[in-house]
Automatic annotation (TrEMBL):
Molecular function GO terms recorded: oxidoreductase activity
Identification of the protein by name: NADH:quinone oxidoreductase/Mrp antiporter transmembrane domain-containing protein
Species for this entry: Litorihabitans aurantiacus
Short name of any one Pfam family annotated for the protein: Proton_antipo_M
Record InterPro entries: ComplexI-like_HydComp (IPR052175), ND/Mrp_TM (IPR001750)
Coiled coil: none
Length: 289
């Protein structure tokens, strides 16, 4: 019962389906910088508490295994449901907010994939743990970049509605590039950092013979690419249109550089992720001994 109550309370704080309804309302109403911090850092604090409850206070217990699998199943639902809801939205910040609902689902899959098998720490659990922590880092970078880029576009064009962003790829290429790179990382495509944890989680599912986790991992990636493509496509020029619409407000400097740098970090770290994974795996094994 204690584990169930912890899962419910912390699930609400990390916006896990079906306790997610506050997040898509909060993000569009908040300034872009606040949304970036909330999604990239604040949610992760509650996630760390959830992980510590499972892997330090009740490691390998039958109750932790049962409740962890149930919570992970909700995570699998969240991966797909959050991405589908993102695809149905026409406002940039709402799309990014619902993508957070989806990505949180991956982070709770760790409760099942990193759980020791019969109390024994095996390769599947190690891969699941390193995948979860790397996912938290990748998500933090990508989501901070996306919210800041979305806020910059909304400021420049006076609205974050997709139909009002026509021509932004020409007028604000760095901002759109940040949005695109961050979205590709969320989709788990190489060579971004987002690819590494998806691969680790898939490896864990294979090693533990829990093939059913493949479905949310693969479908979630495809849907993430789809809503990223929808956002980027909205910034293209209309074929045959003589004049590219100009932003209502001239935006530059820090507002364009910061999201681009964050997105670039998600790309660069993906090319040099091996040392990070090795450190995480060694730390998990050492902490369990």
């Amino acid at each position: 019962m204690v584990l169930v109550l912890c899962a419910v309370g912390l699930g609400a704080k990390i916006a896990l389906v079906p306790l997610h309804s506050w997040l898509p309302v909060a993000h569009p109403a908040a300034p872009a910088a606040v949304s970036a911090v909330l999604s990239a850092l604040v949610i992760k604090a509650s996630l760390v508490v959830l992980w510590r409850v499972w892997f330090q206070l009740a490691p390998g217990t039958p109750a932790a295994a049962r409740v962890g699998t149930a919570v992970a199943a909700l995570g699998a639902v969240a991966v797909v449901a959050g991405a589908v809801m993102a695809l149905r939205r026409r406002r940039l910040k709402q799309i990014v907010a619902y993508s957070t609902v989806s990505q949180v689902g991956y982070l709770v899959l760790v409760l099942a994939l990193a759980a020791p098998l019969d109390g024994v720490l095996d390769d599947a659990a190690v891969a699941g743990w390193s995948g979860g922590v790397t996912m938290a880092v990748a998500h933090g970078l990508a989501k901070a970049a996306m919210f800041l880029a979305a806020g910059t576009l909304a400021l420049a064009y006076g609205s974050d509605r997709l139909e009002g962003l026509r021509g932004a790829v020409t007028r604000m290429p760095m901002t759109v590039a940040a949005l695109a790179i961050a979205g590709v990382s969320l989709a788990g495509l190489p060579p971004t950092l987002g690819f590494v944890p998806k691969w680790q989680l898939l490896t864990s599912a294979v090693a533990s013979d829990e093939w059913w986790w493949f479905l949310p991992l693969l479908v979630g990636g495809l849907l993430a690419f789809a809503y990223t493509a929808a956002m980027v496509r909205a910034t293209f020029n209309v074929p045959g249109e003589p004049d590219v619409p100009r932003p209502a407000v001239a935006v530059g400097g820090v507002l364009t550089i910061v999201p681009f740098v964050l997105a670039l970090l998600a790309l660069v770290l993906g090319l040099a992720a091996a040392p990070l994974v090795e450190v995480l795996e060694a730390g998990f094994v050492g902490g369990a001994q």
